[in-house]
Amino acid sequence: MKGFSKQESSWMLYDWANSAYTLIITTAVFPLYYKAAATNAGISGADSTAYLGYTIAIFTFILAILGPVLGTIADYQGFKKKFFAFFFTLGVSATVLLAFIPGDNWLLLLFCYTLAALGATGANIFYDAFLVDITEEKRMNRVSARGFGLGYIGSTIPFLLSIAIIVLAQQEMIGLSAASASRIAFLITAIWWGIFSIPMFKHVHQIHYIEREPKPIQASFIRLAKTFKDIRQYKAVFLFLIAYFFYIDGVGTVISMSTAYGTDLGISSTNLLIILFATQVVAAPFALVYGRLSDRFTGKTMLYVGIGVYIIVCIYAFFLESVLDFWILAMLVATSQGGIQALSRSYFAKLIPKNHANEFFGFYNIFGKFASVMGPLLLGATAQLTGKSNMGVFSLVILFLIGMIVLRFVPIPKTEVQ
Which residue ranges does the record assign to the Major facilitator superfamily (MFS) profile domain (predicted)? Predict the structure, then answer.
């Protein structure tokens, strides 16, 4: 890619690879496939949405516990790539397994989805931490944003192929059932994810590390304890993590629960898939815009903008009544979801010590994942108690507001001071 090094380009290409999982498994095809299976089993829409939320809460809790420990071990020379490869393999393998689970077994679907999600999100801990190894601080905002932009563009290709197969099956134009077509989409996702991850394995290497010690696991726990003990030394880092904990909760919940929420509103699966495709197309250039504007106005300012947009999203979601309303909501999300995630990643990378990147990105993960436990639980519980999914989405406003307030106290990285 013009203007980027081989290491930067290979790192960014992994966003192109794994975003197919995010779109097809997390957001689009799998939730619809699961919702259909649950409906066939006699489970109500609100309950099946709640069970999906609880499942997301369970696997994010598991990874939140493991993240800092694995990250601390991965700071040793040569460990980062090994941990990345393990979770990557788990994620791709479990995605393949989804294609072979009967469509009427919704419980087994959720279990396999948990394994796939553990792999995908676990690999991202170490992928994100590689940002400090492949570029310099002044380029991090742009490189991180370009990665998200590539992810949105790249994910649309397997998504379109998958949706074409599903629609043709629904119209009985090919000899496949809609369920079989969905399972083929899972295979397409795994293949795409695997092939375009090859440059990451070939060209991205751990540059910042600490030397190995005789008892690395024991030493890692000691270092982790020391980090907690010296927490005041990293005040800016942990203030940012607290802010991130709150605002990213809402972002992740909106992304992972949007399709199930749209189904509960009575929007057809065809309309949902079209809307999701349009969201990816619109999100790609906006992620790049966030990266460029962050160079002019600072990443912190653009994070405020993104949080503000999501507050509007949550308020607007409460009043949704039609497909047009859902279109408007999706386009609002598209303007900011990539930007807020990309700039959070690069902002954090500028605050941390580079040779402890995995340990600190482990904390980045634990704060993000514990937030992702709270959001789906809140949405799921509210949906069940009120029988209205829109009440759960509306309740996320408070999380964005808290995140915005705490972010005010986080200093601007030296490389961004105007």
Answer: 236-418
Mean per-residue pLDDT, 71-83: 81
- The domains of the chain are located at 6-413
- pLDDT at position 176 is 87
Mapping DSSP to helix (H, G, I), strand (E, B) and coil, where does residue 176 land?
coil
Of the pLDDT bands very low, low, confident and very high (cuts 50, 70, 90), residue 303 is: very high
Domain 6-413 homologous superfamily, CATH: MFS general substrate transporter like domains (1.20.1250.20)
Phi, psi dihedral angles at 130 (to 5 degrees): -70, -10
User: 17 pLDDT band (50/70/90 cuts)?
Assistant: very high
Taking the C-alpha atoms of residue 84 and residue 246, their distance in angstroms, rounded to an integer, is 26
Q: Quick one: DSSP state of residue 105?
A: -
Is the pTM value of this prediction over 0.70? yes
| pLDDT of 390 strictly over 70 | no
Query: Which one-letter DSSP state was computed for residue 24?
Result: I
Q: Is 123 exposed, middle or buried (0-12, 13-18, 19+ CB in 10 A)?
A: buried
Contact 256, 27 (CB under 8 A): yes
Residue 109 and residue 185 in contact, taking contact as beta carbons nearer than 8 Å: no
Return d(Cα 106, Cα 362) in angstroms, integer: 31
Worst-scoring range by mean pLDDT, 6-15, 33-42, 167-176?
33-42
Tokens coding 409 = 């106290």
Distances (CA, A) of 148 to 11, 40, 117, 286, 287: 11, 36, 19, 10, 6
Q: How confident is the model at residue 241 (pLDDT cuts 50, 70, 90)?
A: confident
Q: Are the C-beta atoms of residues 87 and 119 closer than 8 Å to each other?
A: yes
390 neighbors 324 (Cβ within 8 angstroms): no
Determine the Cα–Cα distance for residues 185 and 343; give it in Å rounded to an integer. Answer: 31
Residue 48 phi, psi (nearest 5): -65, -35
